[in-house]
Design a protein that fits this description.
This protein is α/β, with parallel strands linked by helices. The chain has one domain: Rossmann fold. The protein has seven helices and eight strands. Strands 1-2-4-3-5-6-7-8 form an eight-stranded mixed sheet, with helices on both faces. Strand 3, helix 1 and strand 4 form a beta-alpha-beta unit. The radius of gyration is 16 Å and the shape is globular. This is Phospholipase/Carboxylesterase. InterPro entries: AB_hydrolase_fold (IPR029058), Plant_Biomass_Hydrol_Est (IPR050955), PLipase/COase/thioEstase (IPR003140). It comes from Nostoc punctiforme (strain ATCC 29133 / PCC 73102).
Amino acid sequence: MSVEQRSYETNNGSLPYLFSPVSDNAKQPAPLVLFLHGGRDRGTDLNVLLKWGLPRFVDLSDSLPYVFAAPQIPAEQTWADRADDVLALLDELIASQPVDPARVILAGFSLGSAGIWHVAALHPNRFAGLVPVSGRVPKTLGESELAALKDIPVQIFQGGQDKNLPIEDTENFVERLRKVGGKVDLTVLPEGDHFIADEVYSDPKLQQWLVSLSRRNTALVV
């Protein structure tokens, strides 16, 4: 389906983003999947995001049962720098699109995964699910922030051959999150390196999981 290129004006300047509406035959408010890209996709050209991962999957799909948005930050910034703007964009999409605010999922790759942990820890009641792929967890995330995330189902994906990210660090974090009652699943792709996004986001089970979630019912599993 055709992905639109848009821009949202914030107090910190414009925030360009990719946008794809829900399929035309949707009769009820739809989930929203908000995607935060990795470090190498920063810049001023939204076409870069369409080359791979979740934006590419959305662009190549005939129709999808969720609204999709993927903002882009400049080369020198991190998602922590624009967290307030991401939330402002989310509010704009909820106000202007047929989006169910109880069914907002944050997905992120690499730098974007660190971003979704940061945003979700600040606003845990805004999100129905998290999908971090090939991403570090911010070291500033303490036990109180982890406890705030315990009611958000999480699917973590990592390549077994990822040279940028020790699997032990991810496993230790998963254990910490589970100890505070977190609903988290870790999927390791044994032969995968850091760049596993195409394989992860195109998986039918994950796509089904994205639309199964709601803050009104957090007991749903894949």
